[in-house]
Amino acid sequence: QHAILTSALSHIPTHGFSQTTLSLAAQEQGLPEISIPALLPRGAADLVLFRLQKERLALSRNIQPWFSSPSAPTSSPPSQPHHGRTDAPTLRNIILTRLAANRPIVTHLKQSLALISLVENLTPAVNELELLADEIVYLAGGKDLGPAWYASRMGIMGIYFSAEILQSNPNTEWRDVEGFVYRRVDEFKKVGSVLGSIGEWAYLQARGVVQLGRNTGMGI
């Protein structure tokens, strides 16, 4: 399974999250196409989940020091993590680094979101999103496993997933994604000093994500 999925990653930019991609990967591993359903019971959704895990594990190595943005000049210096809290500039950079990993396959991003929105794939997809949020909070300096950690995780899940849905729109440019993340992180920082406000803000963000997904054709 791991060998097929690893081989399949290189075919995603051309063929997307499709049976063709899985068939090419199986062929490269010397396996018959008929073996794919047994090895990958979720089909292309297994490839989506595998890639999500791979990019999450690579995040700490790939963090970019700074991104250009309409609201943040490229001359601005990178921010460093501060233990015990999620520093806003660092949080932006981490989220944008993960979103930047989608750029080589951005034309197929909507397909991947549609696959993980199916009922049978939703639970592992949400679990992976939670793990990503945990990683982002940790890398941004959040070390305390208390109420603030879980409130931060909820907020970051909303920011990341809504940004990814925006990124999947073929009319969206990278600067639009950057600007969106900057605005959402600024909002997150403003309510971050009041724990109850984070929970309310995260709930409103989640409602917005669902509506955005429906507007872009996802089955949620």
From TrEMBL:
<dbReference type="Pfam" id="PF08511">
    <property type="entry name" value="COQ9"/>
</dbReference>
<feature type="domain" description="COQ9 C-terminal">
    <location>
        <begin position="124"/>
        <end position="192"/>
    </location>
</feature>
<keyword id="KW-0496">Mitochondrion</keyword>
<dbReference type="GO" id="GO:0006744">
    <property type="term" value="P:ubiquinone biosynthetic process"/>
</dbReference>
<dbReference type="InterPro" id="IPR012762">
    <property type="entry name" value="Ubiq_biosynth_COQ9"/>
</dbReference>
<dbReference type="GO" id="GO:0005743">
    <property type="term" value="C:mitochondrial inner membrane"/>
</dbReference>
<dbReference type="InterPro" id="IPR013718">
    <property type="entry name" value="COQ9_C"/>
</dbReference>
<keyword id="KW-0809">Transit peptide</keyword>
<keyword id="KW-0446">Lipid-binding</keyword>
<comment type="similarity">
    <text>Belongs to the COQ9 family.</text>
</comment>
<dbReference type="GO" id="GO:0008289">
    <property type="term" value="F:lipid binding"/>
</dbReference>
<protein>
    <recommendedName>
        <fullName>Ubiquinone biosynthesis protein</fullName>
    </recommendedName>
</protein>
<feature type="region of interest" description="Disordered">
    <location>
        <begin position="68"/>
        <end position="87"/>
    </location>
</feature>
<comment type="pathway">
    <text>Cofactor biosynthesis; ubiquinone biosynthesis.</text>
</comment>
<keyword id="KW-0831">Ubiquinone biosynthesis</keyword>
<keyword id="KW-0830">Ubiquinone</keyword>
<comment type="function">
    <text>Membrane-associated protein that warps the membrane surface to access and bind aromatic isoprenes with high specificity, including ubiquinone (CoQ) isoprene intermediates and presents them directly to Coq7, therefore facilitating the Coq7-mediated hydroxylase step. Participates in the biosynthesis of coenzyme Q, also named ubiquinone, an essential lipid-soluble electron transporter for aerobic cellular respiration.</text>
</comment>
